[in-house]
């Protein structure tokens, strides 16, 4: 899990506030982060950094522990899906190129991605999403300093569309093919600030001794937090052709 951080500058005082949490992401190559386009759209790359290997963003580890626990990298460039639209949120996918490679450790590694749209060798009832987002949508809700996870199940798009039509979106809402849905159980959901984070599902029939996961979604949007309505994620499957093409161009 990657944390994308920004530096804010107060326009009146000129005071800088560094390491302000922006959104989540996932490591798909030692130099590339997969995230949601809406999180990083129109951001100045010089004011961004990516942190990996951290679970407590407020930890006061000493320098020796920091070297082991997490790694920071600057951002060289951001590539957005050409069909992304901040209004509709269609194809809410972006790749963040880091200024140098991340060193891999047991707690910092690359997540597997579907090779193509037809790869479905994962359990839709055994999925997880993680993030440092808010603990609610109400006023006074706060971002989490410690990384949280929620256990979720995927929801078929036709069922998800029907449930979303019961909300303010109305009876004519159509769920775009670039999305998938998960959750829908009250009180179990991602929330504001979790955007860009991964939705991963357990790989079926893995030959490994420990559980293996594949990333199937990217946290995109939802109706409130923890309501009886599924959350909406950018589909990694549906966007796999673009992701693989751009990843190859960045890393070649």
UniProtKB/TrEMBL annotation:
Single annotated GO MF: serine-type endopeptidase activity
Chief site of localization: secreted
Q: Which residues form the Peptidase S1 domain?
A: 1-248
Give GO BP annotations, semicolon-separated.
proteolysis
Name the domain of life. Answer: Eukaryota
List the InterPro entries hit by this protein, alphabetically: Peptidase_S1_PA, Peptidase_S1_PA_chymotrypsin, Peptidase_S1A, Trypsin_dom, TRYPSIN_HIS
Compartments it resides in: Secreted
Under SUPFAM superfamilies, the record lists: Trypsin-like serine proteases
Record's keyword annotation contains Transcription: no
Q: Which UniProt keywords apply?
A: Disulfide bond, Hydrolase, Protease, Secreted
Q: Which GO terms describe its cellular component?
A: extracellular region
Q: Does the keyword Ubl conjugation apply?
A: no
Q: What is this protein called?
A: Phenoloxidase-activating factor 2
| Gene coding for it | PRSS48_1
